[in-house]
Amino acid sequence: MKHLVLLGAGRAHLQVLQSLVALSLPGVHVTLVTPLPRLVFSELLSSFVAGHQPPVNCSISLAPLLDASGTTWLLRSAVTLEVQSRCLSLDDGSSLTYDVLSIDLPAMLDRQMVEQAMPGAREHALFVRPAETFFTLWPQVVTLAQKRPLRMTVIGGGRPDVELALAVVYRLPDSSVTLLTGDESAGCGYPPALQKHVMQALKQHRITVIQERCTGIADGEVTLASGARLACDVPIIATRADAPTWLRASGLALDDQGFITVDGFQRVISHREVFAAGSVSRRADMTHLASGTDTSFDVGPALAKNLRSVLAGIDPTESMYKDKFLDFLSLGEKRVIANWGNWTAQGYLVWWLKERRDREVLKKYSKYGQSGPAELAGRRAP
């Protein structure tokens, strides 16, 4: 019997599991390796911070889908990959061999590297990733802000960080919010029309934008590269995420930032039996995309089809990525900017459309029922 190992429970792998519910893989045993019982949808983070959505509406339980698809679940994390022997080592000392491996892991913040760049971050800062931890800690910040106004600093200038800063100032209107964007301007990389709306929104909500790097964090303040000190009660680390560090020794083809390089079939260009999708991967033919760009909504169905094909000895099919797609940028309050290429629109109606799309996504994956966090504990792969 062949063994398909799905490493990580990203959205592309959710679509693979859904395909297994509809049509099983004869002669193939499927194992999912992930340390968490739920998948948190990162695009709902700003809605949660702003108070529009409770935590339960921002994630789904994996257990019902795993049960329905007949997939074995290992509640573990990977620590090493030996591609020559096709062996994946897990954090409990066990190992898995595979015939085909698919990787759909979230990008993450390397806390050791963050601490080196910003001494004191581990002790004094709130990290956005992993999202599961942030979702647990954020209500404590809200409770504290109800007692006294807080001085908040969001460290990071990318698209999610702008959304986060706007969500924070909406949820905590009596607190002050500063956005530290590092070496780049806020919203850098947006189309010009969208960047204009972003800057207007930040100014309208009185968010202070400082284009400087944070070089240290202490109790009650953050230090800037210029040497200036900024008063801060709650620093939030939301800088660019990295690929898992253990990938560097795996032997897989990686780009210069450590993300897995895949071809048009989502297959790792150095190993035909390994596939990758989501924020941990980057297509070699799409270097114009930023490393870590999560395209899993587009490639999920193609990944499911190609995994099925290679396991059956059939040539895979190239997955098509859209250069233009409808994107949303939340403004904190119930207003959202919609973006399609250089076209933008905003307002309550756009927010309603985004909320409807998000509800449909959650409904799609949670239709297998509700369950607690340890339903499949004890299940083991052969």
Residue share in helix: 25-40%
**Arrangement of strands in the largest sheet:** 5-2-1-9-19
Oligomerization state: single chain
Count of DSSP helices?
10
* Structural domain tally: 2
**What's the CATH H-level homologous superfamily of the largest domain?**
FAD/NAD(P)-binding domain
Structural class: alpha/beta
CATH architecture of the largest domain: 3-Layer(bba) Sandwich
Rg, alpha carbons? 21 Å
- Structural shape: globular
Mean pLDDT: 85
CATH fold type of the largest domain: FAD/NAD(P)-binding domain
Distance between the termini: 11 Å
Number of strands: 23
Share in β-strands:
15-25%
Explain this structure.
The structure is a single chain. The chain is of the alpha/beta class. The protein folds into 2 domains: 2-109 and 242-324 and 352-366, 3-Layer(bba) Sandwich (FAD/NAD(P)-binding domain); 111-237, FAD/NAD(P)-binding domain (3-Layer(bba) Sandwich). The chain is built from 10 helices and 23 strands. It has helices at residues 11-22, 45-50, 63-69, 111-117, 121-124, 131-145, 159-171, 192-204, 296-311, 348-366; strands at 2-7, 28-33, 38-40, 59-61, 72-74, 78-82, 87-90, 95-97, 100-103, 126-127, 151-155, 176-180, 208-210, 214-218, 221-224, 229-231, 234-237, 260-262, 274-276, 281-283, 327-330, 336-340, 343-347. The strands form 7 sheets. A 5-stranded parallel β-sheet has the order 5-2-1-9-19, covered by helices on one side. It has a 5-stranded parallel β-sheet with strand order 10-17-11-12-13. The chain is globular and about 60 Å long.
